[in-house]
Amino acid sequence: QEFFNTYFTGQKDLSVMNAMGPTERKHFLSRVLGYDRLRAAQELARERRRLVTAQLNGLRSAMPDPESVERMLRQAQERLATATTRAAESAARAASARAVVTELEPRWTTIQHERDAIQRVVSELRVLENEQANLARDGERLAGEMAEIAAARGELERLAVELMPLAELARKLQGMEDLYRAEGRRQTLLDNDRVLTEELARLGERLGRVDSSPTLEEEVTVALEQQRAALQAVEGALEAQRTEWVRDRQEAETKIQALRQQYTELKQQRETLVNLGENGICPTCARPLGDHYRNVLDLVDAQIETVQVDGNYYRQRIGQLEDMPEEVKALDDQRRREFEEVGKLERRLAKVQLAVQELAQLRHDIAEKEQRHATLQQDLAGVPSGYDAAAHKELLDERARLQPLDARATKLGALIEREEPVRRAMLEATMRLEQVRDQVAARSAEREALHFSEESFAELRRRYEEATAEFRAAELASVAAEGEVATAGLDDERART
Q1: Full-prediction pTM beyond 0.90?
Q2: Interatomic CA distance for residues 403 and 394, integer angstroms
C-alpha cells in the first residue's frame, strides 16, 4: 500500500525508476518495501545472541573445580591459624612494653621536674652574676668620675684667675663691633651718595638736551603737515597719470582683439568668395554676385588691408604702453621721496614727543633724587665715628686666645655640676651590689642543694624513649595481626561457600 501511495500514484512516477541504474533501483525498492528495517532487526537479534553466549561462557569459566576449592579452603585455614598466633604474640609484646613504660613514666616525670628546677636556678644565678659584674664596673666608673670631678675643681680655680679680664674684654669688643657696623653703614651711605651724585649729573645733562623739545615739537609738526600735503598732491597726480596709462593700454588691447576677430571673419569671407566664384552669394545683401564678384572681392581685400594696418598700429601702441611712461615714473619716484621724507619727519616727531614726555619724568626724577641726596647727607651726619681697625684686631686676638680657656672652664663647670648625681649613683650602686651578692650566695646554695645528675637524666631518657618506641611498635604489630586474622577469616568463609 505504501509503495502505491508514495511512488507510483501516477504513470509519470515510473520515469523515476527508468532513470535509475540497477544498483540504485535495488536500494530504492528496498527502502520502499521496508527491507532496511528487516536487516536492522536481524542485526539486533544476532547482537543479543552473542551477548547471552558470552555471559554463559563467563559463568562456566568462573566456577572452580573441586580440587581447587579444597586447596583454597586448606590455605585459608592455614593463614587463619598463623594470623591468630601472630596476633596473640603481638598482644603479649604490647602488654610487656606497656608495663615497662608504666614503670618508667613516674621516674621520668620526676627527673624532668628536677632538671627544670636546676635550669631555673642556673639561669637566675647567671643573670645575678652578670648584674654583679655590671654593678662592679659601674662602681669603678663612678669612682673614676669622682676623681675627675676633684681634678676639674682644682683646674677650674686656676682658669678663673686667667679668665677675669674676659668680661671687660667682651664689653670693649661689643663697643668696637658697634663702631665697626657703624663704619660699614657709613661706607654704604658714601657709596650711595656717590652713585646718587653721578645720577644727578647724568640727569642734568639729559635735561639740558631735551629742554627745548616742546618748541622743536611744534616745528616738526608743522613741517610734517606740509610734507604730508605735498605727498598727497603727488599721489593724486600719480594716480591720475597711472589711471590714464592703464586705460590707454586696456583700450589698445581691446581694439587689437576686435581687429583679430574681424580679420578672421574677412579671411573666411574671401576664401568663400574665391571658392564659389561669380556664383557665390554676397556676404552683405545675400544675393548672387554675378558681375559684381570682382568688386566685392576687391572690397573685401581692401577691408583686410585696412584691418592689417590698424592691427600693426595697435600692436605698436601696446608695445609703447608696455612700460610705464616717463612722466609716471618721475611722479612715482617723487612720491617715494616724499613718502620717505614723511617717514623721517614722523620718526623725528615721535622722538621729540618721547623727549617731551621724558622731560616731565626727568624733572620728577631730579627732584626725587635731590631729596634723597639731602636725606643721605643727614644720615651720614648721624653715623658715629671713631672706629680703630688695629684696636679691633687686638681685641679679637685676645678673645681668640681666651675662648678655648672659657670653653674648657664651661666644660669643667658642667663636670663639677654632676658631682652630686654621681655621688648618689655611686651610693645606690654600692647598696645594690651588696644585695646582688647576697642573692648570688642564696642561689648558689640552692643549686648545691639540688642533687641532679645529667648522666642519670640522659640514661633514663634513653630507656624511656626506647620503651615508648617498643610499645608503639608492639601496638602497631598487634593492630596489623588483628587485621590479618579478620582477612584470613573472610577468606575461610569464602572458601567454605
Answers
A1: no
A2: 14
